[in-house]
Write a structure and sequence with these properties.
The chain contains 13 helices and five strands. α2 packs across α4 (66-75), α10 packs across α11 and α11 packs across α12 (208-214). By secondary structure, the protein is an alpha+beta fold. It folds into two domains: 5-89, lambda repressor-like DNA-binding domains (434 Repressor (Amino-terminal Domain)), CATH 1.10.260; 106-287, 2-Layer Sandwich (Beta-Lactamase). The longest helix has 25 residues, at 263-287. It is 48% helix and 11% strand. It is globular, with a radius of gyration of 21 Å. It has helices spanning 5-18, 39-45, 50-57, 66-75, 80-89, 106-113, 134-140, 153-159, 161-164, 172-190, 195-206, 208-214, 263-287; strands spanning 120-123, 129-132, 226-231, 235-246, 251-257. Strands 2-1-5-4-3 form a five-stranded antiparallel β-sheet.
């Protein structure tokens, strides 16, 4: 497939002009005269330079990579049909759809963009974090930064002690059973060539605890109604988790709330302050 520069430029312009700042979680500002989003705003949403994006709208520059097109599709809040169209205009074959895909639907993104005061995250059926609200990252750290099998919290649970440190010790046994049960269900659902089967094979090699639990063949172990998180500065938070499912992509929007007036509710209000300090510290440690 060859790139259609004129078609790509026109499509990007139309999609940019159709979006309003509030559609993507940006402030509008009093003196705004632009119809739709500015090029600089789209560039930030798509994680690219303003100059690079501007050249695409002017039918110039190199052919964007598949990764870059995927980032633009997500930044512009495209539907799956629009995403596939964008890939073809750029001269690429669209990624597969369904549970193995990482493209988040515009509907879930619009909801997440409005959850500035609530911990929330969008995850795959394998517990791979695709997006987090600011408070979501403050609560658990930036879990979108992982690559490979480590993207899955179920994999990290059995291979990375730091993952368990975010949860109360009394809950570890139940959580271990839940992650194994869930992975077995998804592996059976998606088949032996799935990413779930790949993660299961890795864990069978790397974790004795996982091997023992896998042999039980437990199914249907579900999360408790209240999740207990340990924040390194705010302390223990008991949070209720509400789930919104996107059936087409098998993605889940998880929203965490505390009972008003409870200790956890007060500690949750501290997260914007203490969480930002913790996130910066984790970032410094990871970069070092």
């Amino acid at each position: 497939m060859q790139i259609d520069r004129a078609g790509l430029a026109a499509f990007l312009r139309r999609r940019r002009e159709a979006l309003q700042p509030e559609d993507v979680g940006l402030p509008r500002g009093r003196r705004r005269r632009t119809s739709g989003l500015r090029r600089e705003e789209v560039a930030v949403l798509c994680h690219m330079s303003s100059d690079y994006y501007a050249r695409l709208e002017r039918e110039r520059g190199p052919q964007p990579s598949e990764q870059m097109i995927g980032s633009m599709a997500q930044g512009l809040h495209l539907t799956l049909d629009e995403r596939d169209h964008l890939f073809r205009l750029a001269g690429h074959t669209p990624p597969e759809r369904g549970a193995a895909g990482d493209h988040v639907s515009p509907g879930l993104l619009r909801i997440l963009d409005r959850l500035d005061d609530t911990p929330a995250e969008i995850v795959t059926e394998l517990g791979e974090t695709l997006r987090q609200s600011p408070l979501g990252a403050a609560l658990t750290g930036d879990t979108t930064r992982y690559t490979g099998a480590a993207r899955s919290i179920g994999y990290r649970w059995f291979t990375d002690p730091a993952t368990r440190s975010r949860h109360v010790a009394e809950d570890h046994g139940m959580l271990s059973r839940m992650f194994v049960s869930g992975l077995r269900e998804v592996t059976t659902l998606r088949g032996p060539d799935s990413r779930a089967a790949e993660y299961a094979a890795l864990l069978l090699e790397e974790s004795e605890e996982f091997r023992c639990l896998w042999e039980r063949h437990e199914i249907g172990v579900r999360p408790q109604h209240v999740k207990r998180f340990i924040h390194p500065e705010a302390g223990v938070l008991e949070l209720h988790c509400q789930t919104l499912l996107d059936p087409e992509q098998a993605h889940r929007l998880l929203v965490y709330t505390a009972v008003p007036g409870s200790t956890s509710h007060e500690r949750l209000r501290l997260l914007p302050v203490v969480g930002s300090r913790t996130t910066r510290l984790e970032s410094d440690l990871n970069s070092g």
